[in-house]
Amino acid sequence: MATLKKLSVIAIVISMSLFLLVNADVYFEERFDDGWEDRWVKSDWKKSENMSGEWNHTAGKWSGDPLDKGIQTTQDLKYYAISAEFPEFNNKDKTLVFQFSVKHEQKLNCGGGYMKLINGTINQQVFDSDTPYSIMFGPDICGENNKKVHVILSRNGKNNQIKKEISYTIDQLTHLYTLIIRPDATYNILIDNEQKQSGSLYSDWDILPPRQIRDPDAKKPEDWEDREFIADEKDSKPEGYDNIPSEIPDQNASKPEDWNTEEKGEWKAPLIPNPEYKGPWKQKKIRNPNYKGKWKAPMIDNPEFVDDPDIYVYPNLRYVGIELWQVRAGTLFDNILICDDPEYAKKVAEETWGEIKYAEKAEFEKAEKLKKEEENKLGTPLNDDDEEELDYEEPDWEAKLKEDDEGKHDEL
């Protein structure tokens, strides 16, 4: 009887879980199966300059499943732009989940692996880096010192970069990126289904002015003691301290036998540092018993702050896009999901990236082993396309964001 009761409870829990997953609102889901080209529009951006790169529908050089394909950049030193439209939606009172996988097969040295959510109406045929967007999310690499995960939230014509650092792995395997924004203005960022960052839209972006600021009119009290250490008045300079020379004659030196007094004058022993000399005398320091810490102006309410309970809302999301510059091509995108349920996103992650990650790693290691064996036979490293040194200019993302802030974009 107890067993039947236990099974009934389990069945109810499973049914409830399935109900919740079934009732998730999925706004867009793309696994790049047959017919994907009917859903995506390749932009003509840079085409007239012969700088527009081509996409390839492939599982890549190594994969956990050769039938699990995505789209991959194929040409070095090219620009890439492609987008897909979905039924317009508003995430007010709902959680927004944006998830995708990306793999850099090419030992990426300069290029992006990020995606964009776009609001309003755009001409997909000319979608480019200047097209207004709502959210930009994903990894970007250019040189040794410029590696970051972008989480840029656009609002009122200003593109706001997250202020926190996000750690991530740089290799040649597939990784899953997940951004979750909730109606309470909190967020989570996951990579490979592991949380890498979390917090509040209010504090981790400069979307709104801060709620509180330091009082600009406050002044430090005259009796405020902010010296942590003070001179010990009981400590006095030893008698004769100033008479100790910094250098003394070397007692071990002797006049050279060939010293010519008439030509060089009377011989004197060279000077050496005096071990008794301790430098200019300084009074000892002791901890200040009246120390109150470094003075800071008190916090007051910011008169410029106006709360916006809809800080998390994007009312007319309609497109998802990839817009990149790549020095070395080979980045592969797959398993794009936009929905309102983190649990559903987790389930999709387990069904896609989770199913292939171990097999993909094994295939990669096998490919690396074969490459090493071939190099040993030839007695020299293989100089394939991945190893070529290419000239590139690192983008200045701070300047780019500043340029956008000056009114170039007019998105939410």
UniProtKB/TrEMBL annotation:
Signal peptide boundaries: 1-24
Database matches in Pfam families: Calreticulin
Sequence ranges of Acidic residues compositional bias: 383-396
Basic and acidic residues biased stretches: 212-240, 255-265, 397-412
Domain of life (superkingdom): Eukaryota
Any one GO CC term of the record: endoplasmic reticulum membrane
Keywords per UniProt: Calcium, Chaperone, Disulfide bond, Endoplasmic reticulum, Lectin, Metal-binding, Repeat, Signal, Zinc
PROSITE patterns, per database record: CALRETICULIN_1, CALRETICULIN_2, CALRETICULIN_REPEAT
Keyword Chaperone: yes
Binding residue positions for an alpha-D-glucoside: 114, 116, 133, 140, 323
GO molecular function terms listed in the Swiss-Prot or TrEMBL record: calcium ion binding; carbohydrate binding; unfolded protein binding
GO biological process: ERAD pathway; protein folding
UniProt record similarity statement: Belongs to the calreticulin family.
Protein name per Swiss-Prot or TrEMBL: Calreticulin
Native species: Dendrobium nobile
